[in-house]
Each structure stands twice: as C-alpha cells, then as structure tokens.
Amino acid sequence: QATPSVITVQGLTKRYASGFEALKRIDLDIQRGEIFALLGPNGAGKTTLISIICGLVNASDGQVRVNGHDIVTDYRAAREQIGLVPQELTSDAFATVWNTVSFSRGLFGKRADSAHIERVLRSLSLWDKRRNKMITLSGGMKRRVLIAKALAHEPQILFLDEPTAGVDVELRRDMWDVVRSLRDQGVTVILTTHYIEEAEEMADRIGVINDGEIVLVEEKAALMRQLGRKQLRLDLQ
Ligand code: ATP
C-alpha cells in the first residue's frame, strides 16, 4: 500500500547567476513518516535542494508541493508545515533556550503556547536548560535547541542540513537517537549527509545526489543489498 507523499518535487532545476546548474531536473517524493537521507558529496546540491523545498531560494524551473501546497504560490501554507535546522549553528548569545524556541513560534504567527514549548524542550532533554543563555551551551546542546526551535511552530516535516557535520562520534550517535525519536513522534525527517554510515544507520530511504542529479532513490535495505557499502562509497568519491 502506497504511503502518501508529503513533499513532491518535479523537474526542479537551479541555475545560479553565473550560469552554473546546481540542480538538474530533480524529481523526488517524500513519504509521510519516513526518515529520508539525501546522501552526496560536498557540492552535490543538497543545501540548494532543501533551500528551494523550504522556499528560501527560488528554483529556475520546476515545482515543489508540500502537502499539495505550492511552495511559491502558496508559500505560507506550505512553509508552516516545514521546520528547518540549517547547517550553521547560529543563535543569539544573550537569548535563553526558552526565548530562542518560543520566539521562533512567534515568527510563524502562532499563538504563544507554553505547554507546547515545554513538550518540545522535554522531548529533547532541554527542560533543565531552559533558562540558560545560548552562549553557555555546548555544541551538542545548541544543536538540540536549534531542533527545538525548528519544531516550535508544530511542523509535520523537519529538514536537517548536515546535522552531524563536524560532530564527534558520541554526539553523532546522540543526534541519531534524537532523529529517531522525532520520527517515532510522527515527524517526517529529511536530512542531508555525506556520511554513508549515517544514511545507513538512520534512514528508511536514501536518495543519492551527485553533481545536481538524483542518481538513485531506494529503500535503505534494498540499496545496501544492491550496492554494498564499498561500492556506494566508491561512487561518492
Ligand atoms: P556541502 O556538502 O558542501 O554543503 P551541498 O551538496 O550542500 O554541499 P550546495 O551547497 O547545494 O551543495 O552547492 C551545490 C553547488 O552549487 C556547488 O558547486 C556550489 O558551489 C554552488 N553554489 C551554491 N550556492 C551558490 C551561489 N549562491 N552561487 C553560485 N553557485 C552556488
């Protein structure tokens, strides 16, 4: 039985002003409730793709629908369903954890809801840190706060751009646990990574992107059977 798509991408192309084609006619469906890993080397187009899906960057051609809402012509309705954790860990040093997360909810025009903020903070083991200033947090904790921030407006879909880039092994495992628990709470998760181990460890499905093209989309288990880790690693080099 087919799972409904929450995101549909059709013929997506991105040409930067230089004429460089960062994405070449991408087609992609993301299914409700899955963890989808977009796996590819540096410069493959991962950030460009998720920036367009989230409505932050305009495509040169093609279409993105989020639960049926066009990301360009129906931006508000589409955007409301998406949370994004960008690659860079930016935050206001003076803001507390609580402020950071609740402010983000306000940005979406959502009514303040301290019960929801509390739930999100607890689910990420941040409750005890709610009064801490962002500048005092470790990298791992800061990452958690940015996830909480992305979830503050109750999106159904969460994008994580390279959630474990530059993170040590222990913190990486910690992040994997966080992502799985989000999926268990019903959030659809799309993450980008250039670690095959990460895609293998976490994803239900994997899309391999290289040089602006999705070269393969497969159930993880099938992909691993077909290619084997060694082969896939070679492809990505
Ligand atoms: P990384 O893993 O390094 O983040 P990525 O897969 O996310 O890489 P993108 O950041 O999407 O890749 O970049 C894809 C390609 O588009 C790269 O060659 C990059 O240099 C180019 N690119 C990105 N942004 C711009 C821009 N604003 N203008 C011109 N080229 C750009």
TrEMBL record:
The organism of origin for this protein: Chromohalobacter canadensis
This protein's UniProt keywords: ATP-binding, Nucleotide-binding, Transport
Protein's recorded name: ABC transporter ATP-binding protein
Molecular-function GO terms, alphabetical: ATP binding
Coiled-coil ranges from the UniProt annotation: none
ABC transporter domain sequence ranges: 7-236
Record has ATP-binding as a keyword: yes
